[in-house]
Design a protein that fits this description.
Oligomer: heterotrimer
Distance between the termini of chain B: 62 Å
Order of helices and strands of chain C: HHHHHHHHEHHHHEHHH
Number of strands of chain C: 2
Strand content of chain B: 15-25%
Shape of chain B: globular
Strand order of the largest sheet of chain C: 1-2
Largest interface: A-C, 69 and 62 residues
Helix content of chain B: 25-40%
Largest sheet of chain B: 5 strands, parallel
CATH topology of the largest domain in chain B: Rossmann fold
CATH superfamily of the largest domain in chain B: Response regulator
Strand order of the largest sheet of chain B: 2-1-3-4-5
Radius of gyration of chain B: 22 Å
Chains: A mainly alpha (292), B alpha/beta (420), C mainly alpha (336)
Shape of chain C: globular
Order of helices and strands of chain B: HEHHEHEHHEEHEHEHEHEHEHHHEEEE
Structural class of chain B: alpha/beta
Radius of gyration of chain C: 20 Å
Number of helices of chain B: 14
CATH architecture of the largest domain in chain B: 3-Layer(aba) Sandwich
Structural class of chain C: mainly alpha
CATH class of the largest domain in chain B: Alpha Beta
Number of domains of chain B: 2
């Protein structure tokens, strides 16, 4: 029972990060009908920038700020400079270009920083509090929950309570009509990419201290888990992304804990296959968008 | 198709030209890679990839030592060129780069190729081409097969020897405690576990990890559930840090006992960052002078070489290791004599009897191609390792673990070994 | 840059098959390769052999992605399937040719299973699924480590080549025999009804269905065919490296394969050849540049960056790249 509780909290903590990352994927999907396969690499790039600043200044929080702001900028740049010019007649084109970006980002990071693992220290202690003799959550886990929770609340407010959020939804929902009504559709698209990349960077900063450290390939596995989370929830549903993230996190924790760490990636694959073949629109999708 | 063939030929040609700057072989005699004033040798190292942390400093340090020797006149008038190829710890790349070194660059020997999975794949190729394969950077027992691979020699004490020595210390110091074992899921972990169990019998719990999966939470959870008092780690540095960090996270604080290859304090401190105090009291082992031992004449020599020829790189045990490999290779070259051939080089290594930086002797002989014969226990305090007790030697079979009492050698005046 | 021009120029021929028969071209190719193996030094022969092995898989991928419009990031994993099959077989029986045949067979079956799932998926969903397949390889080899020996992998028992031929030359012959056979089979396949069906499904699924083409069946078949090619390539890589390990089939390999066929010019077997040559030549060139520059960090990463830049540029400018093909034009912006 101790172990079950521990694994549950561990899974929720990891799941929160997957949820944030999946949210980033969903944001771009809703805005541009592209699954951003470069999301992981972009998050690593900003994390390198963030930790460089943190190392230079000694302030983790300044680095954190730089990483998230860097995400905003990088997202906007990628949309303005590259993605805007992709021929969108086939969904494959966006995927291939994103994969090209992955190679570029990983190559450039390797050239600048080398390919060794660089330490990515956590801002809070990762020692767990013990409640009744059971180690449950660390201060860092609480920070992760708080950060992801804040992102979800802020995004919800943005999309439901502000004019900008409304414009973004309109631009994604009916670009032609929106343009006629004076919505700057291109600008909204850029904003969507920027927001998504910033959320992705945040997720990256949250997950890195729990892994081996910074490495150009650090997010490859995370991306697969987050993609699975997004698909489980339905690529169109932000709520689904959050739930999907938690589901994937728990699955990985239980499978890793009870069947062995090496089995966990296979469990993700099986979940992905089952969801894609059984309920392809995800558990939370409201409309058909399969072939997109 | 003709155009395609032209493209193909042009590209092959382009690739050929770009590498064509290495035709310096030939010279006196027919020995590849050796001329009257130069020796070309090569290595494969993980300069990139998951094993690069720490290990990528080794080959540059070896090269720095060779540069120091070259600046002092070389060996029998020959200067050593050390060609370092990156294989990213990926066996497929190792095949490619070692073939390039042997077939294209025509190196005289391969020195200190790093990694068990990587180097295993090129043993047959090196044997077929009769290339000396000296001082492999790994403690696998695979290198010690004189009958099958007459040109291959190890460097590290093999992992079984190390496992026995670590276990003997655990048995004596933590008698009656519950001992558990986490090993890398390959020869490294398996050989080490074999050594541990030869001394301690079956351990209370054993787990493995793979380099590609950075989550050791489940393994540490299982150890905690089994109430282990001592955890022996056969892990590379990144996973040593990860295991210690993860254990602390779940409120599990056993005594950690770590294999030499995963215990460099500087690398671990860097990787753990703010959590570095967790390293306090960790037990490990070594067989070379420790980087922090300023009074050791070898360290003084290496520091001098490091500042002059290695761009004053961060001085840690990886640098000590790399320079010690260089020193041993120069000893072998001195032993092979002025008329250098591949057979003479392997004969010189087989003759053995090298005294150098090591705390224990090497085991080289016609029947034994493994490297150093034992290790001494270290303990980490205040971010620094210090030696405990005396060095121990043993074999990889059922022989006893015995204290070694031989005196440590001091380096020659100019830091370059002479023919013995 | 001649490669890019080459791709643009020949783009126009894409729809009309070349007049010369594939058999003649393959025979000519075989003669060129055999001649080359006698003049090239051993290391070049090894590289030539590697090109041949890559050619097998890029040719198959060209059919899948170029002619059928399915994107797979899982072909690295399929190559691993072939390679491990051969390694396990060789270490037991040491009969190379039946071993290679078995490797192709096993990979075909695995490819068929993935293909069945793939036929129901499109675009990013398919890419994501195959991506998950690619990253699961190390997990499988370490979960079943008794069989696959985890990250360390297996060594491959090989008899030395018959007679006095150097190993590298023998490897080049073997790999190119496989490659040319693959190309021959594929060339005849895509010229016939199968090829027409492939293109029909790629261009307009609904129209293809109306014309009586089994869409799902064609897509599964395309996946199976390309999987067989990947299995052959994997087996040949096992022969080349004399060892197999998950590290030899990373996600980057799958990305590189995709890059190779996109740059080579999708949908043409010549493009697959150019891609295979690039896969071997570019890292080699990049490495010597890095060596001249004396920077450790450049090594490997230079090639990676270059591949990425070219991939993005080709996709944006799209000469012979994916966009030059006709894909179904659906209203993508409909609210999903």
């Amino acid at each position: 029972m101790d172990r079950f509780l521990y694994l549950t909290f561990d899974g929720l903590s990891r799941g929160a990060v997957y949820a944030a990352f999946a949210l980033a994927l969903v944001l771009i999907w809703r805005a541009a009908r592209i699954v951003n396969f470069a999301q992981g690499a972009m998050a690593v790039a900003t994390a390198y920038a963030g930790y460089s600043v943190a190392d230079a200044t000694g302030s983790y929080w300044l680095g954190f700020l730089v990483a998230v702001t860097g995400g905003l900028v990088l997202g906007a740049v990628v949309e303005r400079v590259v993605m805007r010019f992709v021929d969108h007649s086939s969904p494959l084109n966006g995927v291939v270009v994103a994969l090209g970006l992955v190679l570029i980002i990983q190559g450039v990071l390797g050239m600048i920083y080398g390919d060794g693992y660089r330490p990515a220290p956590a801002p809070f202690s990762r020692d767990a509090f013990e409640i009744g003799g059971i180690a449950i959550l660390s201060r860092y886990d609480l920070f992760v929950f708080a950060a992801v929770g804040a992102v979800v609340v802020l995004l919800t407010l943005l999309f439901t309570r502000t004019a900008t959020g409304l414009r973004m939804r309109a631009a994604a929902f009916a670009p032609d009509v929106s343009r006629l009504l004076g919505v700057p559709v291109g600008g909204m698209l850029t904003l969507g990419w920027a927001l998504a990349a910033a959320v992705g960077s945040l997720a990256g900063m949250l997950v890195l201290p729990t892994e081996l450290g910074l490495h150009p390939n650090a997010m490859d596995l995370l991306f697969v888990s987050a993609f699975t989370a997004a698909v489980v929830g339905g690529l169109d549903s932000p709520v689904g992304a959050v739930v999907g993230g938690l589901v994937v996190g728990l699955l990985l924790a239980y499978v890793g804990g009870y069947l062995g760490a090496t089995v966990a990636p296979m469990a993700v694959l099986v979940l992905l296959v089952v969801v894609l073949l059984g309920r392809p629109d995800g558990l939370f999708a409201r409309a058909k968008a399969r072939t997109a | 198709m003709r155009r395609t063939a032209t493209v193909l030929a042009a590209l092959l040609l382009a690739a050929g030209c770009s590498n064509g700057n290495s035709t310096s072989s030939g010279g006196s005699g027919n020995t590849p890679g050796v001329t009257d004033n130069s020796i070309l040798i090569g290595t494969h190292q993980p300069l990139t990839g998951p094993a690069a942390a720490g290990y990528s400093e080794i080959a540059p340090a070896t090269k720095a030592y060779f540069d120091y020797v070259n600046a002092n006149g070389g060996i029998y008038g020959r200067k050593i060129t050390y060609k370092i190829m990156d294989d990213g710890y990926n066996p497929a790349n190792t095949q490619q780069v070692v073939r390039q070194l042997v077939l294209q660059d025509k190196v005289f020997a391969i020195l200190n190729g790093l990694g068990t999975p990587t180097h295993t794949g090129v043993l047959d190729f090196l044997k077929t081409n009769r290339v000396p394969d000296l001082f492999v950077a790994s403690g696998s027992r695979t290198w010690n097969q004189p009958g099958k691979y007459p040109g291959t020699f190890g460097f590290n004490p093999d992992y079984t020897i190390e496992g026995k020595i670590l276990a003997a210390y655990v048995k004596q110091t933590y008698a009656g405690k519950k001992v558990c074992f986490l090993g890398q899921d390959d020869d490294f972990g398996r050989d080490s576990l074999a050594g541990v169990e030869k001394v301690l019998g079956t351990v209370a719990a054993k787990q493995t990890y793979v380099v590609t999966n950075p989550n050791v939470g489940p393994q540490m959870g299982a150890f905690k559930a089994a109430a282990c008092d001592v955890v022996i780690l056969a892990s590379i540095p990144g996973f040593t840090a990860l295991s210690i960090g993860t254990a602390a996270k779940i409120g599990f604080k056993p005594q950690f006992v770590v294999s030499n290859v995963g215990s460099d304090p500087s690398t671990l401190t860097k990787t753990l960052g703010a959590a570095a105090p967790l390293l306090e009291g960790v037990v490990a082992a070594n067989y070379l002078p420790l980087d922090t031992d300023e009074s050791n004449p070898w360290i003084q020599l290496y520091k001098k070489v490091n500042s002059q020829y290695n761009g004053n790189a961060a001085f840690d045990n990886n640098v000590v290791y790399g320079m010690s490999v260089g020193y041993l290779f120069v000893q072998a070259l001195q032993g092979a004599g002025k008329d250098l051939t591949r057979d003479k080089l392997t004969a010189a290594v087989q003759k053995g009897g090298f005294t150098g930086p090591g705390l224990v002797p090497t085991r080289f002989s016609a029947q034994d191609h493994s490297g150093y014969a034992g290790e001494q226990i270290t303990k980490l305090t205040g971010g620094k390792a210090t030696y405990l007790g005396t060095p121990y030697t043993t074999d990889d079979a059922d022989g006893a673990v015995t204290a070694y009492s031989g005196a440590a050698a001091t380096p020659p005046q100019n830091g370059i070994p002479t023919a013995q | 840059m001649t490669i890019l021009q080459d791709a643009t120029k020949t783009k126009d021929h894409q729809k009309s098959p070349p007049k010369s028969t594939p058999l003649l071209l393959v025979i000519a190719g075989a003669i060129i390769v055999v001649a080359l193996t006698y003049v090239l030094p051993p290391f070049r022969n090894y590289q030539l052999a590697t090109i041949g092995a890559y050619f097998c898989v890029t040719a198959g991928l060209t059919v899948l992605t170029g002619l059928n419009g399915q994107l797979s990031l899982g072909h690295g994993a399929l190559m691993a399937t072939g390679a491990y099959t051969l390694a396990l077989w060789q270490n037991k029986f040491d009969l190379l040719l039946p071993g290679i045949a078995l490797a192709v067979l096993v990979t075909t079956v695995v490819g068929g299973i993935i293909g069945l799932a793939a036929a129901r998926l499109r675009g990013p969903y398919l890419a994501g699924l195959t991506l998950a397949v690619a990253v699961v390889v190390p997990s499988i080899t370490s979960t079943f480590d008794k069989t696959f020996n985890s990250d360390q992998g297996l060594s491959v028992a090989l008899d030395p080549p018959p007679g006095v031929i150097p190993v590298e030359q023998w490897q080049a012959w073997l790999c190119w025999a496989g490659a040319l056979l693959t190309v021959l089979v594929l060339a005849y396949l895509v010229r016939g009804r199968f090829g027409r069906d492939l293109r029909a499904v790629r261009d307009d699924e609904t129209a293809a269905k109306l014309a009586g083409v089994g869409v799902a069946r064609t897509q599964v078949m395309a996946f199976v065919v390309s999987a067989a090619c990947a299995g052959l390539a994997g087996a040949l890589f096992a022969v080349l490296a004399q060892s197999v390990s998950p590290g030899a089939f990373p996600l980057t390999l799958s990305l590189f394969l995709l890059m190779a066929i996109v740059i080579g010019g999708l949908g043409r077997l010549t493009g697959a050849l150019i891609g295979a040559v690039l896969l071997v030549a570019l890292p080699s060139v990049a490495q010597s540049i890095a060596e001249d520059a004396g920077s450790q960090h450049l090594e490997g990463n230079l090639a990676l960056t270059f591949f990425g830049v070219v991939l993005v540029l080709v996709m944006l400018a799209a000469p012979g790249g994916l966009a030059a093909l006709k894909f179904p034009r659906r209203s993508r912006r409909q609210k999903g």
